[in-house]
Structure formats: structure tokens, C-alpha cells
Amino acid sequence: MSTSATGQKKRRRKREHKRLLREKVLSQRRDAFRRFPRIVYRHEGVPARLVDAVKAAVKKFVFDHETILPPAAVRLFHLVRKIGFQRTLYLGKTCPELNSGLPNRFVGLSPTATTLLCSMGDYILSQLPSSTIDGYLPFSDISTLPGQPHDTSFLVEMRSLCTAKTAHGTAYFSPYKPTLEIGGHRLIVAFSDHAVRRICERTVREWKVYPNQVYAFSVLYETTYFEPWIPRDGKIGFTLFHKCLPVNREYANAQELVGKLPPGRTHSYRMGYCPAEMDRGFLRAKTLLLPGMVGTPEYNRCLRPLAKSPEKRTEFYQRGDNLTCSRVYDQQDLDLLKYFHNSGIPQVVSFDHEISRCKLRPPSKRTQPQFQDASCCR
């Protein structure tokens, strides 16, 4: 046999080996796809570049989730495809072994719910380039919602703020177009580029991770109620509130401040103050000042008088201007908020009406699931 014939056989065997490996990988991916919940996208008005990047990350996660996730998390996703999200949550409450080895990142949610809510979102953000995150995510968000629009599917939703050109730059505002009356004029509440980034940085810690970026974006996108605020310099602004949800740390902090929250009312915490300017039908925020920062009512009423007392200045005065959401979240500065609250500036406010269109909804109650045993969790 000639040398050329021998070389051709080796090349054919090599090509055949590659083909078989490729078919094996494709077969494994098809099997993984069939076991994974169906993916549904919703992304009206979102930049195409962001949509393409998210879809590529989701596709990789679906095909390779069995190697990306730990076995306990893989089992949960397969259960959602098999029996649905609601019954998987029920099993997470009744089968302790189903939660073994799973993290719990939210107050009031089981490890099963936390894993299903966050695993895909964590992976998507980890796959996006930093330039995409910095360029798009302050003005858009990415959320993965299990059990929507069907109980055995996942909704990957992307939303973006609306934009308009004004004399002072771009105005970013919610498609719900919340308004506030200032000086007899009904104005659409909007935010500058700087204000959007300050809200992301100051309302959550590490806003570039999931689901913090969804939470920060919800302040801009879903808040529909604002109150006028007149700074000491006589200019205009508005107060920003955010709803206290039982799954967030703010709910526990609110109870620390005012005690048990009565049912039947919308409980919100005072997120901060936005100095603003009127511009072509918009009330455009310039930045976000957290309670206690220079220029806020908390500073003027509570902290400015302490400047003459060296010992009290060390205790509260400097902490007021360095107040961050991270420190409040960890309850390091909760006593400072108590000081503001007890000084006549409520930090937790209750309303008889809704103040946001928060998309977080409690799961539908099932008093009796459609199966009588817990064999699905084995």
C-alpha cells in the first residue's frame, strides 16, 4: 500500500472520529434542550445588540446547563419542565432533601425558589462583556422569570427606558410616563444619564450582578408615585420612594424602624431625593441624594446642628455624608435612619395607594397539589 493511500485512510478516520464526536455532542445538547423548560423572549424597544448577546448566553446555558450548574440545581430545572414551576416550589417546601446544597439569597424565599429565580440570570450577566453592561444595563434590564408565561417555561424579559432629547441632554423615563405637578405644570418624571447611574450605584450594592440590576432598574421603570421636594436653595426636586417587599432586606429594616407593618397598606421606604430641572415637559432628575447627605432634609434638621459638637460630629455627622445603601443593607447605619425617623422625617411611609408597578408577584396558592406523593423529588 502506498504512502499516499495510508495517509488518506488516516485522514478519513480522523474526519469520521470528529464527525462522531460532533454528533455525540449535538445529541447530548438536544437531550439537554428537551429536558430544559421552554424559553420565551420578550424584548420590545431593547437595543438589538443587547438582545443578541442575551440570546447567545441563554442558548449556551440551555444546552450546557448540566455542566454549568450543580446536580441539585439541574434537577430543579428538569422538574419545572416535567411538573411545572408551582409544583416544584411546593416540593421545595415539603422535601428538605430537594434544597440540599442550594444557596438561599433572599429573605422569605426557599433555596428552590432562589435557584430557579437567579441561576440563569447569574450566568447571563457573567457572559456579557463589561462594555455591554456599562453601555446598556443602566438603561435596560434582563430578568429571567420561571413559570411565565406558562408554568413549564421561562420568560427572559428585557426592558428599556424611553428617551427624549432636551435642552440639557437626554431624558430617560419610564414608558408608564409618571407625572408630578410642579408650579401648576404637569411634568413627566425623567432622569439624566448621571442620575440613572447614581440610582444604580446608591440603591443597591454591586448593581452589575443579578438580580441587583433588576432591582435598581425597577426604581426607574416601575415607580409611579413621587412627591415634590424643595431644596434649601429654592430650586425644585422630588422625593423617591420604593416599595418594601417581603423578600427584600428593606422590609426587615422597616420593621426594625417602625415595628410590625400593618396589612392592607403600601409600605415604602424613603430612598432619597432628586434635585431636578424642568425641561420641555420633563422634570429631569440630576442625581440621587440618600437621606443624610448634604442638602437633604435629614442633613439640615438632624446633622447640621451636630457640627458644633465634636463628639456627636464623630458619631453621626460624618456617617451621614458617607451613607450608602450597602451600609444600610447590612444594618450598620440603621441607627442613623432611626435617628432621622424619630426626629420627624419618616424613613418608612405608608400609603393607601400603590406607588409602583412592581412585577414581583407571589406564587399562586395551591392548597392541594395534583400529586399525592413526593416521588418527583427523588
Explain how this protein is built.
The protein is α+β, with helices and mostly antiparallel strands and 378 residues long. The protein folds into two domains: 132 residues, no CATH class; 191 residues, no CATH class. Helices cover 44% and strands 20% of the residues. Strands 6, 7, 8, 9, 10, 11 and 12 form a seven-stranded mixed beta sheet that branches. A three-stranded mixed beta sheet has the order 1-3-2. It has a two-stranded antiparallel sheet with strand order 4-5. The radius of gyration is 26 Å and the shape is elongated. The C terminus is likely disordered.
Features:
single chain, 378 residues, alpha+beta, 7-stranded mixed sheet, 3-stranded mixed sheet, 13 helices, 12 strands, 20% strand, elongated, disordered C terminus
Query: If you compute it from the alpha carbons, what radius of gyration comes out, rounded to the nearest whole angstrom?
Result: 26 Å
State the share of residues found in helices, binned by percent: 40-55%
Beta-strand segment tally: 12
pLDDT averaged over residues: 83
Q: Give the DSSP E fraction (strand runs of 2 or more residues).
A: 15-25%
Overall structural domain count: 2
Uncertain regions: pLDDT < 50 for 5+ in a row?
A: 360-378
Structural class: alpha+beta
Helical stretch tally: 13
The biggest beta sheet is recorded as: 7 strands, mixed
Shape: elongated
